[in-house]
């Protein structure tokens, strides 16, 4: 039996989605590479019989339905879904509009792929979270909310779909050198509250300064993803990059300290047992 898998990747027009698609093809699998601009996807990936480029804005349900239909028509199944597409809405919570926060949170692809995987009784859903899915950072309320939300959703979904042979992996990348911090992908809140002026200026300097300086190589992350997908069973979580591991280890230590600080108080909250008659 062939080990060739059919991957479906969102956000494959730029950034790590392109590296994921290239690595999948190089490993001998087939890929449905999706993006808001289908031509940009084709341009980034070239031609291959194992490649289908499709238009898909992940906030649009109709796009997702058409893209998944096209994938199944062409390849007959979907083995691995990579929820990768996202942009970065950066800014102080009070300066981000409710609409910006909604846009950061919106996605609808998994809902469309699940019936296919359920029918197959087989599938692997990989969702790209972030260090900001483990820890909240100043200036990152909307982004962290989307990634924390993704994590709670994926962990719960795993329990729901594992009986159908569908498994999940959360990936927490640290800083990787993609286009995420360019003007095309980062949307800064409009400055509107003077109280934040000084700190906002420092945050803007930091985030703009990180662009093109990130230590992580997305091509290496892409190859790591293939290794994770070939594991039996795949890891439920992959913390990607030395910086992400440092963040995760700090989170574990902080949680432990927070548990210990109030352990007695916390464990004293149950109803008193009625005395034995
Ligand atoms: N790079 C990092 O340091 C880093 C760290 C942690 C997590 N991540 C996560 O990694 C994932 C990929 O980001 P990246 O670093 O590769 O960023 P990127 O270079 O900016 O690429 C983002 C990709 O997502 C697509 N996209 C954005 N909104 C979309 C939508 N509504 N529908 C469809 N496609 C959409 C973009 O397509 P267009 O060309 O149409 O804009 C582009 O292909 C994201 O989930 C990000 O949060 C990145």
State the fourth-level CATH superfamily: NAD(P)-binding Rossmann-like Domain
User: How is the CATH topology named?
Assistant: Rossmann fold
Strand content: 15-25%
Provide the CATH architecture: 3-Layer(aba) Sandwich
Q: Rg, please?
A: 21 Å
Uncertain segments: none
> Which ions, cofactors or small ligands are bound in this entry?
NADP nicotinamide-adenine-dinucleotide phosphate
Helix content: 40-55%
How would you classify the quaternary structure?
single chain
CATH class: Alpha Beta
Distance between the termini: 67 Å
Q: Could you describe the largest sheet, including whether it forms a barrel?
A: 7 strands, parallel
Number of domains: 1
Widest sheet: strand ordering? 3-2-1-4-6-7-9
Instruction: Average the pLDDT over all residues and give the rounded result.
Output: 96
Number of helical segments? 10
- Number of DSSP E strands: 9
């Amino acid at each position: 039996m062939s080990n060739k898998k059919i991957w479906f990747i969102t956000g494959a027009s730029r950034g790590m989605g392109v590296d994921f698609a290239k690595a999948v093809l190089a490993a001998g699998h087939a890929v449905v590479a999706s993006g808001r601009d289908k031509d940009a996807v084709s341009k980034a990936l070239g031609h291959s019989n194992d490649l289908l480029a499709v238009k898909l804005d992940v906030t649009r349900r109709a796009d997702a339905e058409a893209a998944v239909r096209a994938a199944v028509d062409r390849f007959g199944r979907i083995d691995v879904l990579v929820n990768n597409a996202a942009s970065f809405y950066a800014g102080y919570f009070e300066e981000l509009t409710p609409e910006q926060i909604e846009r950061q949170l919106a996605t609808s692809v998994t809902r469309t792929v699940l019936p296919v995987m359920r029918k197959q009784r087989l599938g692997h859903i990989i969702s790209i979270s972030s260090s900001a899915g483990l820890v909240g950072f100043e200036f990152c309320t909307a982004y962290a909310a989307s990634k924390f939300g993704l994590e709670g959703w994926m962990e719960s979904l795993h329990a729901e779909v594992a009986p159908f042979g569908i498994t999940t992996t959360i990936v927490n990348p640290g800083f990787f050198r993609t286009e995420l911090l360019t003007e095309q992908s980062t949307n800064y809140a409009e400055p509107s509250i003077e109280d934040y002026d000084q700190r906002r200026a420092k945050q803007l300097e930091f985030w703009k300064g990180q662009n093109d300086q990130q230590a992580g190589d997305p091509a290496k992350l892409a190859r790591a993803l293939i290794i994770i997908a070939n594991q039996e069973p795949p890891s439920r979580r992959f913390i990607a990059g030395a910086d992400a591991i440092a963040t995760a280890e700090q989170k574990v230590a902080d949680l432990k300290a927070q548990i210990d600080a109030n352990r007695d108080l916390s464990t004293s909250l149950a109803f008193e047992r009625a005395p034995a008659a």
